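Quarterly update, task 2.4: NAP-bound model.
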Amino acid sequence: MATEPVLTLEPRVKDSRGFWKQKRLERKPLVAVSAVEINQKESSSVVETVQDRQSETLAVQSPAQKPASQLDEEQYSSEEHIMRQNALIITPNRSYQLITDFPVSRKLAPGEVMIRNKAAGLNHIDWKSVEYNFCLPELPWVTGREMAGVVEHVGPGVTRLKKGDHVWTSTYYRDRRAGCFQDLVVVPEHTVFSIPINLDFHTAAILGVAGLTAAMTLWKWLRIPMHTDSQDQQQEPEREVMLVWGGSTATGQFAIQLAERAGIEVIAVCSEATTQLVTSLGATHVVAYTNKTDPQIIDEIVSLARGRLTKAIDLVGATTAKLVLQVITACSDTEIDFAPVAYMSSKEVVPPNARVHIVEMKQFVMDSSCGIYGERLNQLIEDGAIKIPTVSVLKGGLSAVEDGLRLVKEGNLAGRKLVVSLCH
Ligand SMILES: NC(=O)c1ccc[n+]([C@@H]2O[C@H](COP(=O)([O-])OP(=O)(O)OC[C@H]3O[C@@H](n4cnc5c(N)ncnc54)[C@H](OP(=O)(O)O)[C@@H]3O)[C@@H](O)[C@H]2O)c1
């Protein structure tokens, strides 16, 4: 699958503590952005972090501060098993540092797989966890939640995979060896999938977060059937309706297509700039939020739904999750399943007809039965049933991660997904 040309990175902007400065909102040049809107954006991104903390159920301890080179030697005391590799570590003062001799043990536990990294996807959780200090069990740590590469070797009992296989995975932050911003990544076998035949390393590297989150949100939490004959279902005159707020987000692009395949009519909310993209993915109705008031957007959604709204997801944040609850309130005649995938404040008043489902992607790693979601996603991609979001590849290896995450945070990517290439 083709990828976009390499992005040109702008110079870094850091504050005195070495953290990125919040860039002024330039992302919607056609719209006058008021100070209030900017504040809402900023505060919503802060509260998103709080939810991320809650949903990860992490007791944040004061980070242990050890020299990076000692770390895995302590865990796997025998020096003969230690390999040295490149890793982008988060240092004790929470800045990034590229280390060329970061240790990792060759020795794998039963059921583990070591993958040589060829491409790592960049996600909001990566910058948030560093900036707001969560999901970092100790320091130094290695972050990064999704990657694609080549199986380097497998632990005892692994039968489904072998050295040399081209694979992708989705990881959980609790194991430093599973951080994807390093050359060698160690994960459980059930989280590893062959790269679909029609994808390369770069495109496969975005399946682990956006693709899998959309798949599990719909199939596991919202109980939308995984196996459906969409052609039959689309004939039905009164189809169920699902609201996807944030239709152009990478996660939203997968969600729209999976819902449409299941015979569900999708109402997607996005900016005017991404309307064409969202329409091309099969959304039945696209509501552009640009230049509209919140009540106007809500009215438009409610009138398009015509009493058939049964599912909703929010992929933007606290402000839009609140608006989804208002839509649900206005559709009081139906019970509506709602997954606030980005963030919903625990102070929100949930209307009686809403059933809120908290999406916990750690389940994918902790519960091996969740492997079916990766398998099914792979199959749909191989069948050509799902279009992959456009991928922009950053060259420069792990040293490009920090600048790439700044672009993710700024949010001007208009539906593109950023991947760091480690293919030499
Ligand atoms: N719980 C989990 O495990 C989990 C997993 C994956 C993602 N997430 C969260 O889900 C969210 C989406 O992640 P992502 O990586 O898919 O996002 P992304 O691809 O980075 O999405 C960015 C897009 O959001 C759209 N957007 C911004 N404000 C909007 C608004 N008010 N209404 C509608 N769309 C808006 C923008 O497009 P427009 O030009 O169309 O506005 C922008 O291009 C993030 O908050 C992420 O942290 C959570």
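Highlight for this quarter: Confidence is low (pLDDT under 50) at residues 5-64.
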